[in-house]
TrEMBL record:
Belongs to the pectinacetylesterase family. It is an enzyme of class 3 (hydrolase). PANTHER family: NOTUM-RELATED, PECTIN ACETYLESTERASE. One of its GO terms (cellular component) is plant-type cell wall. It is found in: Secreted, Cell wall. This is Pectin acetylesterase. Keywords: Cell wall, Cell wall biogenesis/degradation, Hydrolase, Secreted, Signal.
């Protein structure tokens, strides 16, 4: 074994061991899913940042789920220049298995509405929310910026393998993958015209511009650089790019209104990642801000006010988009980023609830039209630690 292979093997064992430790609770080790590399995508120029082929993780559907399909887009942030992209893990050379939890779980008790669906998780290896499209390969760094082609190649593969004949379809993603879900929702809908029901769920992808809060210029200029570097403009809806700078068209507040396919927004109004990384407190509240975002009990009143201000802006931004009955909403005040793949966060006694529904109940009710779901936590105007110890 080479040293690298050994490290990978150890990591694999470690993941296995972690899952085994959890077995008593509810997991089974076969919730770990290996990657499959899509070699045929290379000929289409659909490759990861380092030129390696794209990959996916797949679990076959069964029973009454055999003809239902979920496509899951994971998160991982973005990169905006050569230095940042070279550090970003954009490769499938040593692709590790992933754990299918939460909405991906095959356990009927955890995931009663979707456990037996066909579930495909696309590997996120392009750092552009599956939207980049640069023809040229950078000579100096060998960077390939081809996220849109990766999405297309993986989708085409699965259309041919049964997705085209699906009855129920759902595009789901978290974080950068939640944003990818919003960006690709209508395009994806158009690829499965024969499906009787197609809906999209974006978890923790509602990154706000928050023009009134510190750091707005950085938030805007970062997205502009991402759009420029990956040549994303062509992947963005013209309904947005015709009105404003394409960089602003990565903010869901400028996109959601025009998404035609039913869309569910799941997010915290005190999103942990946005508060930790994208929003700065006022200078007076900056000392030990990072500590506060790791342990809410030590936050100063000024720091908690920063979180309340974020929440107010978040809810106002949502309100400005307007309400539409096909849109699902589940906006809580958990100090959390990413819910859907975490079983404890989406189901069970300890999981956060709104309207007495867990996240998976809410999504199931909305998806199957059992009820409208328009849940916003208006009671808690402070961040709650929803992580069970
Ligand atoms: C995943 O790959 C590992 C290592 O190659 C192998 O031992 C395991 O059986 C595979 N699991 C599945 C479900 O195919
Ligand atoms: C690349 O982007 C990162 C993140 O925005 C930034 O910190 C860094 O200065 C940039 N590097 C160059 C060479 O522009
Ligand atoms: C879709 O269904 C048709 C008719 O049953 C069948 O001929 C075709 O092979 C199916 N396509 C896929 C991709 O499963
Ligand atoms: C949709 O169904 C029709 C009729 O069965 C078929 O001709 C067509 O190819 C299907 N479209 C797709 C994209 O699968
Ligand atoms: C940018 O993307 C568009 C399609 O969206 C493509 O036509 C154009 O050639 C791309 N530009 C570069 C420099 O690759
Ligand atoms: C803040 O966090 C840093 C790094 O984790 C730690 O060294 C330091 O003691 C913490 N300070 C306070 C006041 O909690
Ligand atoms: C958070 O800070 C409090 C007060 O300093 C401390 O008692 C507690 O152990 C800390 N919690 C964690 C998880 O570090
Ligand atoms: C939330 O509570 C858990 C368990 O007590 C703790 O580990 C974690 O640090 C807390 N998170 C924050 C942001 O306070
Ligand atoms: C909330 O839901 C639980 C489990 O679904 C149920 O047992 C309980 O009665 C419900 N509570 C209220 C107030 O509706």
């Amino acid at each position: 074994m080479t040293q690298k292979a050994m490290v990978d093997h150890l990591l694999y064992l470690l993941i296995g061991a972690l899952v085994l430790m959890n077995t008593q609770v509810h997991c089974e080790s076969n919730d770990i899913v290996n990657a499959t590399i899509l070699m045929s995508a290379v000929a289409k120029g659909a490759v990861c940042l380092d030129g390696t082929p794209p990959a996916y993780f797949y679990r076959k559907g069964s029973g009454d789920g055999a003809n239902n399909w979920m496509v899951y887009l994971p998160g991982g942030g973005w990169c905006s220049n050569k230095t940042e992209c070279l550090k970003w893990p954009g490769s499938t050379k040593k692709v590790k298995p992933v754990y299918f939890g939460g909405i991906l779980s095959q356990d009927m008790n955890i995931n009663p509405d979707f456990y037996n669906w066909n579930r495909i998780q696309f590997k996120y290896c392009d750092a552009s929310s599956f939207t980049g499209d640069v023809e040229a390969i950078d000579q100096e760094t060998n960077l390939h910026l081809r996220g849109a082609r990766v999405f297309k190649a993986l989708t085409e593969e699965w259309l041919a393998k049964g997705l085209a004949n699906a009855t129920n379809v759902m595009l789901v993603g978290n974080s950068a993958g939640g944003l990818a879900t919003i960006l690709n929702c209508d395009r994806f809908r158009a690829l499965v015209p024969n499906a009787s029901r197609v809906k999209c769920v974006a978890d923790s992808g509602f990154f706000i511009r928050a023009k009134n809060l510190p750091g707005a210029e950085e938030r805007e200029s970062y997205y502009s650089r991402v759009v420029e570097f990956h040549n994303i403009t062509g992947s963005l809806p013209t309904s947005c790019t015709s009105k404003m700078d394409p960089g602003l068209c990565l903010f869901p507040e400028n996109l959601v209104r025009n998404v035609q396919t039913p869309l569910f927004l799941l997010n915290s109004d005190v999103d942990e990642y946005q508060l930790r990384v994208k929003v700065k407190p006022h200078p007076a509240d900056e000392p030990f801000w990072q500590n506060c975002t790791h342990n809410l009990t030590i936050c100063t009143s000024g720091q908690l006010q920063t979180m309340r201000d974020f929440r107010t802006t978040f809810l106002k931004t949502l309100e400005e988009i307007g309400y539409c009955s096909s849109r699902g909403l589940f906006i809580n005040s958990c100090f959390i980023h990413d819910f859907l793949f975490k079983s404890d966060m989406v189901t069970g006694n300890g999981a956060p609830r709104l309207g007495n529904k867990t996240i998976l109940q809410a999504i199931g009710d909305w998806y199957f039209d059992r009820s409208l779901v328009h849940e916003i936590d208006t009671k808690n105007d402070y961040p709650i630690n929803c992580t069970i110890s």
